[in-house]
Structures
1.
Amino acid sequence: MRKFVIKRLLISVVIFFFVALILYTIMRCIPTSFVESQARQLSQLPGAKSYEEWLAQLTEMYNLDNSIIEGYFSWLWNAVRGQFGDSWYWTKPVLEVFSDSIWYSFALGAITFVLQIVIAIPLGILAARKQYGMADYVVTVIALVGISLPTFFFATLLKYVFSINLGWFDLYGIVGRFYDQLSPFGKFLDMAKRLVLPVTTLTIVNIGSLMRYTRTNMLEVLNSDYIRTARAKGLSENVVVNKHAFRNTLIPVVTLLGGSLPGLFSGAMITETLFQIPGIGYVSYDAMVNGDIPFYMFYSSFLAILTLLGMLIADVMYAVVDPRVRLD
């Protein structure tokens, strides 16, 4: 197992090198940039230099006059040393912008992730056990509704019902007006209340795929020969499902869950925008629109590393849930 992990880490380093190169190339080729918009604004001031002069000056200042390959290796060398520069759009260090926004998205993503597992996997197993029964049909309808609902539509519907009509929750924001005057526990409750609708939105629109995936794999396992043998030996249905079938169902599900790791940090751009949550999804969108190369390069590289790490964790978890992998 140790050799396997080391081998995968070395392969991941090579993959990350080329992924980061592609990301940097895309960043340098986007049709708009902070440098161009800043040069345009500065050129419109009274007595200012022309747009072309400002553009040349800013391009030299931010080392954009080098080729893409030279610029990439310069960025990579600084990144290895933990120096990601200042955000052009927010005019402060990239890591500071990242740390100010990532925890909102992480809280939103982590709560949603836990609820997905707690809700989707048991319901998927229940639907498989009661195939073509009422429970199966209900779970199927819920899954299809979750898969079909657009995020912006469902979030708007929740806001209309629970915020405008019933007045149970505020329309937007992560904290209330008197947040600073509350006790620590009061601050926690205030923030938790404002996360109810965003968490509900993300949970409902995301559980459908996992429910259907779990149901399909459980049906495949329940129709296996060794499950029929276990039943023929007189084992109870609960023992057959919970001890024999469930563990084998987890093998393909682990892949799906391992790939969900980047989602804990990537943010939910649409949901965060609709509820005005200052998370990393909304911040990264602003960075992309305004051509903030330093911030978006760091953020994209961070997600690339998480994706590679998620794939490695999924492979290791295979060995945990399937003894045959450990033997190989």
Note: The domain at 102-290 is CATH 1.10.3720.10 (MetI-like fold).
2.
Amino acid sequence: MDTGTGVDMAVLAEMARKAADSAYAPYSRYKVGAALLADDGRVFTGCNIENASYGLTNCAERTAVFKAVSEGARCFRAIAIAGGDDEPATPCGACRQVLAEFCGPETPVMCVALSGDAVREYTLGELLPGVFHLR
């Protein structure tokens, strides 16, 4: 699937898998990576970063979004998430809501397993129907 910027979703998926290598997951041992494509063609990666106080843990998707926003990006075309061994991980509810702040309901979300060929493709609207907005 082409994202309209010349960056293919398969390329984003590989970038997400590579980002998972940097995950800091000493407690769960569950590594996740994300690759977020901005409207201007830049790609921002993120990984999960755990903390002994689990509530302070940050997911890969939010790490990528926060990095992107801190660099001036505000609109995104697609995201790929890599996590799970056999079955791909999907974004948690908090990540879905953060993505909805900067992405439309038709934004492609590709979830891939860290190893193997398992792939699940969604739109953000499918993952988060009835999104909360203050606008």
Note: The radius of gyration is 14 Å.
3.
Amino acid sequence: MGGTHRTRLTVVLAAGLLVPAVLTSCAQPTDPGAPTTPTEDAMSPTEDTPTPIEPSAPASDWTGVELAPGVVVRGLPDGVEGTQDSPVGAAWSPAEGLLYVITYGSSSCPTTTEPEAADDGGTVVVTLVPPPADAICTMDYAPTTSVVGVPEGTDSGEAVSVRLGDAGTVDLAPRPAPDEPGPVAWVPAR
């Protein structure tokens, strides 16, 4: 019986030594001073992986905002009236060459615009940029205003057609006076 006991003890001891040896052989060697995050090569995108673009958060109000293409502000600019009957509209800003594009939707995930519009045979084309599909958004319905630069010669003091993405086209009236915003032309609700 003594020989069987020794054999079992030897097997248990050998197994006890074998498990740590197997586990450590599977582990990656580490340098105690090395960073614990993936290397830059491991984190860099491949040709097939698009690099996400983080939209900037809209300013919370118009205080101190300088009008320039790409500026996005929650709410309506001074002198511009909103509506609950349309999801998007446009108006001339007080600054020449710049449009206000007003969208309604979630205040935390607004639809915004590209900073510059294009000219398509006399129609100003504004590209709308929806919020990311996986965004977690508030369930409110509020206006957000994007400032958009227009092609040279478009802001000539005459009525202009403006295509607001897939939402529709509006005819934009000129400003009533210099340094004042123009009236908003709203896309009819569908």
Note: The first strand starts at residue 72 and ends at 74.
4.
Amino acid sequence: MYGILRFFLFLLPPEKAHYVAMDLLSIGLKLPVIKNIIKNQYGSNTEHPVNFLGIKFPNPIGLAAGFDKDARWLHILKNLGFGFVEVGTVTPIPQDGNPKPRLFRLKKDLALINRMGFNNQGIDAMVERLKKRPEGLIVGGNIGKNKVTPNEKTM
């Protein structure tokens, strides 16, 4: 199944494939059969909690910033078994990021080059989504300055 899905996703530009894959997961999780398969295969693993700096993480599996820039997919990521997720990079006001294309596949190296440029919907949109975050998922954030903010205005 993965091979077929991967084939079709690789027909799309990388950035588009990212959004299509997450949209497909979102739809799949609305179907009880698919949701049960995903939760049984990847769901919240609480067998190996981690205590660090007074915070109890449900498991040691986390996701770094950049994947879910706007905190749009926290419920999906929890269902995939992540114990913590770092959202962002978010900026004070929305910005488009760099011109497209800005995400490049290196198929031979099984890698990506990311030159996104902090594309995001801004902190206010993220705050509203974070108010609805799934219980038990620890969420951290990565913040940055807008391109229009002069360096001398940053700390």
Note: The radius of gyration is 17 Å.
